[in-house]
Amino acid sequence: MALEVQGLTAGYGPVTVLRGLGFRAEAGRITCLMGRNGVGKSTFLKALMGLIPVGTGTITLDGVALQGLPAHQVPKRGLAYVPQGRRLFGPLTVAENLAVGGLVRGNDPAVLERVLDLFPRLRDRLAQVAGTLSGGEQQMLAIARALCLEPKVLLLDEPTEGLQPSIIALIQEAVVVLKGQGVAVVLVEQRVDAVLRLADRVAFMVAGRVEEVRDTRGLAADDPAFRTYVGV
Amino acid sequence: MRRNGLRVWALHLALLAVLASAQFWLSPYLATNLARIMVLAVFAMGYNLAFGYTGLLSLGHALLLAAGMYAAGLPALLWGWSAGPAFIAGLAGGGLVAAVLGLLALRTAGVSFMIVTLMFAQAGFLTLLYFAPVTRGNDGFAVAAASRSFLGFDLSTDTPRFLAAFAIFATGLLVSLALMRSPFGRTMIAMRENEERSRMLGYNPFTVKLAALTLSGLYAGAAGAAYALLFGYVGASFATIQYSILPMLYVLMGGAGTTLGPFLGALLMFALVEAATGLTTAHQFIIGAALVALVLFAPKGILGTVRERWAKWLP
């Protein structure tokens, strides 16, 4: 299984953000997207999900074209997206949020069990209103809800931003378990230590394109690539 | 969760029990008023499905009320239909007009949706006036007594009228509660909370909102038909903007996105109007002041505030 992107252009109205972007994510691997602010990382994830119109180029999952599909069709083809800022359905309980997440897939109880095994903390809070969860729990729920779609590819946009270290560790563990389950994880992450610990590959973005792809084996924290592309 | 479910059903059934018994301890005048409130509450429940749960702020619900009213009233007037078929025609009329309205108006959102629904409602009102030879325009018409009977009961008399209003209200309330506890109800709330996020979970916002608006139209149609058949009058005044704003006020007062809020809002607003009218000719001022106070001190409406502060289990 592979998500393939070739020559992708996309943007907002007259402003082109992605300029001929190429990218590949494979099952059971974590691919990190890194780059300075404004290079188009979040825009790329939105374009993959059909949330912004794509100009030219192709997006295929297992050879099936995704570009041009209405946004609500994309999750049914195997992509799930956890954007920045969590965006839960605040007045609904944890259980209801998960049920809304899995409805288009028929709410299989086995899937829900697997998701709750990944985030046991949520199991104790099923009846709690989502808006009253801590920031870390909300992020877990946002990821768990996306996983109820049984995605082949999981897109995570800075999932640990602003969270305390113990919660970050839990989320990172879950991401590694998902990788083991064969999910292709695409992770936008700015912290070098997290990237080196989690990722199999890093795609460095510059001005709306993937400029360089590096395997994390043999990549050190002081590698010039980080300074060049991320500025750290 | 299970305990909350029992508590919720118990609360709703207790309210229905109190309302069912009200005809025995209220004066005929008050019982008739309560029947009217229950019918208007059904209208408000429908509005609540669209606005309170799905986030569709419509200014065109008078069109849906009038659609139900005329779809029930005109066959009764022209062809002598009895109450049963006329009511079903009203229900269908409200739902059908809501579906057509949705197909057109849901291409817009937010303020534009509000304006477009208002525009369609005004067009509906003017259509009723334009076709006055059939609709009787502003004067309206009375529904004949022969058309106001159901299974041998004369709906123009106190007890059958009250019981019919109660039956429609109870059905509306329980359906609304069941809906909100169903997956589709949660989808409606998800749509209200974050449309883009819902789309990312595989929902088509247009389809969900269209279904919600059509359901809302069925409620409005039922209320319009019930009003025509129980109170015997059909008129174009029910298609004016006032009847688009009333359900919004009921819902805002009682609590948007709560199952019991529309009834509470309709009841309190009705009582407030009655009390204010008895006090002064400037009764609109008192009502306005009450609404301003509500917005200032309980912006989520009465039951919305109760739910937020004390009873999170309230649906």
Automatic annotation (TrEMBL), chain B:
State its location(s).
Cell membrane
Q: What's its membrane topology? A: Multi-pass membrane protein
Residues folding into a coiled coil are none
Grouped into one coarse class, the protein's main location is membrane
Q: Which UniProt keywords apply?
A: Cell membrane, Membrane, Transmembrane, Transmembrane helix
Q: Which residues cross the membrane?
A: 34-56, 63-81, 87-106, 113-132, 162-180, 250-273, 285-303
List, alphabetically, the InterPro entries matched. Answer: ABC_transp_permease, LivM-like
Record CDD domains: TM_PBP1_LivM_like
One Pfam family, please name it.
BPD_transp_2
Instruction: Fetch the PANTHER family from UniProt.
Output: HIGH-AFFINITY BRANCHED-CHAIN AMINO ACID TRANSPORT PROTEIN BRAE, HIGH-AFFINITY BRANCHED-CHAIN AMINO ACID TRANSPORT SYSTEM PERMEASE
Name this polypeptide is given:
Branched-chain amino acid ABC transporter permease
- Originating species: Tabrizicola soli
